[in-house]
Structure formats: structure tokens, C-alpha cells
Amino acid sequence: MLSEYVLRRRVQFYETDAAGIVHFSWFFRYMEEAEHALWRAAGLSIHPPDSPIGFARASATCDFKRPLRFEDEFDVTIRIAAISRKTIQYSCVMMKDDVTLATGSMTVICVRTEQDGSLKATNVPEEIAARFAVAAQV
Amino acid sequence: MLSEYVLRRRVQFYETDAAGIVHFSWFFRYMEEAEHALWRAAGLSIHPPDSPIGFARASATCDFKRPLRFEDEFDVTIRIAAISRKTIQYSCVMMKDDVTLATGSMTVICVRTEQDGSLKATNVPEEIAARFAVAAQV
Amino acid sequence: MLSEYVLRRRVQFYETDAAGIVHFSWFFRYMEEAEHALWRAAGLSIHPPDSPIGFARASATCDFKRPLRFEDEFDVTIRIAAISRKTIQYSCVMMKDDVTLATGSMTVICVRTEQDGSLKATNVPEEIAARFAVAAQV
Amino acid sequence: MLSEYVLRRRVQFYETDAAGIVHFSWFFRYMEEAEHALWRAAGLSIHPPDSPIGFARASATCDFKRPLRFEDEFDVTIRIAAISRKTIQYSCVMMKDDVTLATGSMTVICVRTEQDGSLKATNVPEEIAARFAVAAQV
Fold it and tell me: Domain C4-129 - what CATH class?
């Protein structure tokens, strides 16, 4: 059972903006990259082909403390903060060396697509829930 | 003095993901688009050429309620929720017709880039603060 | 029958990069935006829900002549350059006032997704081909 | 002297679109990622802080042969196809195992930003040109 993953990442040029720093929208993508890497490390894909379920974002937050610049290397640590029957909550911290760049959170809901295209919350399958545990430190 | 702006927007194909819906990172970009349109409506640019100051994101949050799909039209309403000496806080609601898609918030800090490249908080210039007022309904 | 469309567009902040100009990858997205707007003007969607066919890119090119900056307004003119049984070829020019920013081209193939997930070229449906004509000037 | 680089890459979820495959605009970003990795392997940064010069895109092309899907791993091989006094030309091939996904090219021009904000072609500095050689196979 896994409860955290550390993704090492380098800033790409197209992630920067005219202020010379990484555009804030990318921090949310970094979080999601780390989440998906955590799932792979647990032997899972969060979006396998033809799966009847998916994991939709219910909420996402990020506090930005220090900017990132082109070619900076940094670490994205994602942790399981809580698991309920239908949701998984993550906490995330991004660091460059020992400087905290940003902290964030994401809550995802297990959903099934209905006939009319709407998304309906459903239970996280047992074989998925069984791979994850809440992190000691969140 | 302006306190809100409504941006009409259409979903572009590159904003969708393999789940068939708009990727959640785009909602933060929609918020920022509406913020910049609010500034333009107030006769300002948030990032004029050669400006010594900028408005860095300090935090951003979003709660996702309904998905958006390719070519959907929707409205992004951004409101000034608070103004302090160095920060502006926005609240945001995204709607398709009368259905709420998402609600969010952003806090931005007025910053000056120091010699060493770090960003230092500074006062929002009076000529900018004078253009905005906190919205009655936030 | 339509053969061209002019899309008026404004540069968003997240489209710029640390060189202070629009990242080149966005010009391809601008082209596609104009393509989809052309289809809508012709009464069509290029990606309707549950459609058995799609229009995959076969090639794309762009020559960049002048940079675009934050909040610049510009026009994207897309034209039908050729139509064959299975493909549509577009030419594109992007201009700011009377200055040419970039010229480009895209060829798209009508495809059907096979059982094994591969994409197979198929005929452009007659009701789609009937809406478009090759532009006089390409 | 370096003349090629192979970047191993994995498809991220936000790179896919509602057709279930990687959006074509990403292939241009993959090329650029490989270019910048080639520069780093040569001991250079293509965009160091406060550099008076930059490398603007003059043209980019891509031919798309096979789609990429979420979590696919693939290789981006970029090669120096030609170097002139002011330009560098790259050729690129993207492969998944031994299947060619796409081939592309990019020409970049060494530019200096003028007082009025326009970009003017200038010579590639000798210390940069000295690090690269045209690839045997292009």
C-alpha cells in the first residue's frame, strides 16, 4: 500500500510566461503528474482504456510561495491525505532543494458517466482503494 | 470604479482531455482571462511592457461541480472580493446558462522583482487601486 | 458553401513565454480554433458527441514572421486550400493590422477508430464535404 | 560537439484531448523539449537569465503518422540538420518502440531584441556554434 510519491521534474520553456516564471496553472498540472505517477507506482493507471469509471476533480487549491524559472529542477511530493468511499484527497508540496515553492491539495471523486453524459459519483473500486493508505504525515 | 466582469467564453478543443471534458487546469486559466478582461474594462493592463511591478498569484482555489465539453459556451464572472495595501482577492463563478459549473478564488500580490531575481511584495499603486471597488455580492 | 473564416483573437497571458512573446506552439492552436470556427459557421461541429468519425491532423506547418505579445489583437484567416475524398487541406495567415505575423497550413484526414484503437482513413461524409468549397485565393 | 539527442518521454493526461489522443500541438512542444535537452547535453542553456540574444522559431513542421495515448512512453530524437551563420535547423523523429509516430522539423534564428521591441537576426555566438555539428544522418 502506497501513500506518497516524489516526482522529480524540470521546468520546460512552454511552462513559463511573460513574467519570466512558471505560469501558476502549471502547478496544478505538476500535482496531477505526481498523482498519476503515484498510481503507476501502485501498479495502477488512473485512466485505463475503456474503463467505465474515472476520477474527476472535485476541488483543487494551491498556495504559491516562490517562483519557478526555466530549467529549474524541483520535487513534487504528493500524499494521500484521506480516502472515503467515493473520494481520495491529496496534499502536495513542491520544493526546490530545501525551499518550499508551493503547497496544494486536490480532492478527486470516483465517477461513472451516465447515459445523458452527466457524471455520477460511485464507490472507489476495492482493488484500487486497497493499494493506497493515508500518509502518516500530511 | 469596477468590481466585476463577465467573460463569455467557448470551450476550445485543445482544452479538453481524454475524459472528454475540459481539463481542470483550464478553469484557473479561465479565471485569469476574466481577471485580465476586468482590468482592461477598467482601462488597465495587468502586465504592461516594462512595468517594474507585477501581480503574482499567492493562492488559487477551485471547486468543480459540472463538466464542460467541446464547444460549450459559458460565462466566467469575476468579482473583487477584497483589496488590501498589497493584495487583491477575487471570487469567481463559472456558469453555463443557469447551471453553476465551478466556483473559485484567487489572491494576487503586487510584487517588484529584486536584483537577485526574487519577488518582493510592494504596495498596489494608487492609480490601480483607485479603479477597483469590492463587489457588493461576493 | 464556405471557403474561409476570419477569427479575431486576443493574446492571453498564459500563451506567452519567458521570451515575452507568444510561444510558437500556440500558433497551431490558433489555426485550429479558426478551423473549428469555420466549421461552426458552416453549421457543423468537427467533433460532435458520439460521432463515429473524426478529423485527425496529418500534417501542420507554420512560418513565423513577427512575434505576438500579451493582449495583442490579431486575425486568423483560415481557407480551404484543397479537398480530396479523405482529406481537407487548409492554408492560414495570421495578421495584426496589416502586418503578417505567420502563415501556416494543416492537412486533416477523416478517420474512423478501429476496434484495436488504430485510426483508419475513411471518406469525408458527403453532408460535410457539401458545406465547403476551395477558396479562390489560397 | 553534439549533433543529436534522444529524449524519453511519457504522455501526460493534460496532453490528451477529447479524441482520446495527444493533441497535435504537443508534438511541437515535444520537439522543443528535445532541443533544449540537446543544448543542456552540450553544456548550454537556450535561454539563460539576462541573455541579450534568444533563439526564435522561424518555422516548424510536423507530419503525424500514429496517435499517442495517455501514459504511452516514446522517444523524441532531435538532430542538427544544418547550421548557418544566423540559423539552426533541426530534424526530429518521434517513435514508440519501433513505430514512427511523427517526423518534424524546426528552424530557429538567433535574434536580439531591439529598443522598439522588434526581433533582429544576429549571428549565432561562436561559443554556441562550436558545440554543435550537423548530424551524419538527418
Answer: alpha beta
